[in-house]
Amino acid sequence: MLSEARSDDLLYVADGSTPNGYVHVYSYPKGKLVGQITGLSAPYGDCADRAGNVWIITNFPPEAIEYAHGGTTPISTLSVPAPSYAFACAVDPSSGNLAVTQDAGVSVYQDAQGTPSTYTDWAEPMRCSYDDSGNLFANTSDQLTELSKGSSGFIIMNFSKNETALSNVQWDGKYLAVEGRPGFGKKGAPAPMYRASVSGSTATIIHTLTLEVPRQKPDTTGSWIADHMIAQPVDRGKHVAIWAYPKGGNPLTLIPMTGRDIRATMAATVSLAH
Question: Is the pLDDT of residue 185 over 50?
Fold first, then answer.
């Protein structure tokens, strides 16, 4: 890792190659390669907290590994009780709790440590996100769910869009951003994103935007919203696209993915410098 990385906002891109996966680290939003975290076993997901620390979700065995902003040495490692694989994560800004999606449900670690509480209300959740009040949202391919703060289990939300191909969910600071899957095999096919207000168990769409990817193949990898922009790997990991948010449309820039052994990009996360 270059020394300048610690003072830069950073973009972490997880490459889920096995057995020796990598996390590629770029300056954000300029896209200069500043380092790599190596020797990871199938890193499928990543997420950052408000302090800039980054959690990497790996498999074989499933683990959540924490790194300081711009660091390459783990500062914490948690075992994930996944029968097969772990996938993505989110940190609660109000409590510091860590949520990890896995094939059998969602595991939540109080204060991002110890043994988690695992919720098995349904199988194979994909990605998750906390709002500012500690409510946790997660999606399967066709359902939007919520674990409200203090509740004992997830509920299926009423979502005002009959979307059967959800790929991502994020809290953007005011609304829930729910991403649909782009058209497979169609160059330039946009990915729809729905900004929804949440009231009780209902998510109501108030704005729809598209993430255009000119001349590139869209992916269903995890995106990340930060500093009025959204970043996501596209074109089977050859680039990371950055769009203005919530404007969407054509990307502001396409960052060429550079570094060794780029094979299976799974998620992008932005860690802001403090």
Answer: no
